[in-house]
Amino acid sequence: MKINIAGHYITKIGELWDKSLRDLLKEAIDGAIENSQISPKTIDAVFVSNKAAGSFENQLHLGALASQMMKGNPPAMRIEGACASGGIAVVAAQMALMSGQYKTVLVVGVEKMTDVDSNQTTQILSAAADYKTERGSTFPGLYAMLAQAHMREFGTTRVDLSAVAQKNHVHALDNPNAHFHKKFSLEQISESMLVADPLRLLDCSPISDGAAALVLTTRNLKNKAKILGFGQGQDSLDLVGRKKLTELKATKVAAQKAYLQAKIKAKQIEVAEVHDCFTIAEIMAIEDLGFFSKGKGGKATTAGKTTYGGKIVINPSGGLKASGHPVGATGIKQIAYLAKLIEKGEFKLGLTHNVGGSGATAVVHILGK
Question: What is the number of H-type helices and E-type strands within the chain?
Fold first, then answer.
């Protein structure tokens, strides 16, 4: 069953101190419904993606909050899967549609992260790691270990990491909703403040506010992007339980399932929004998704193979790195952004890749017409 993306919407992403969690949630819901041209009365259910509103905003029960913003108060549920919350929420919505229980549903993701100080933010986000095994760790620290392993085994360089950030900041210039609209040179990125060796400040995605929403339906619609395949993969929550630190097994599993369901191969994908929470994460992703062989992702990026005119366009939105990373909204905004490009005819086949934690959860969706 192919699921139509009837509507999509992405709010501005950034430090949105003039907007509340409720403001962002309502803007995304109303925007997606208006874009879909589907009557709000026909929406059968709502799936809300959010990581930590209880900690950031002291607000839980987001399903009910979203439902009261809609006509008819459709049944709603909140879904959490760390930074992969958005992708998982879309999976849950698809399963409900494929079961025949519903015909049309709305999926909305939201995160308001900038109203607390950086120390609180770090502590809240670290809850997505293994609290007991990795106590005291941060995600820059965990991904720095993955970067060190990749550099040691494959010779990935500092320039390769910087090339990811440089390319994504250039792409974000064409995304009006992106958190950042600023170019950086390789030198500026490589010489920015050290966060966790080898990762520097400009290797890291920002703390962002924002929301995104999708209206999904099994009804037949013309000229709309469709979800052709999807997959979810899992691995150990902690790094010590992984067989390899140079790949994310969850990504490979999710991708294999998605390719099989869509009946396509990786080489057919023209564009992808991948989870570049850190520059090393994009390098590993484009290898694990099958776009480049293992160990070649960094060199491919430096050689210009992951931008327009290359082999495949990676993160045309600017990715998490430059477009921003409002955690609960990220997986949904990835799909919304590609759906718009596919509707406009810029690409025929696209892929989104959403990761939770340091790689414990991964969700892949394949989009096309």
Answer: 13, 12
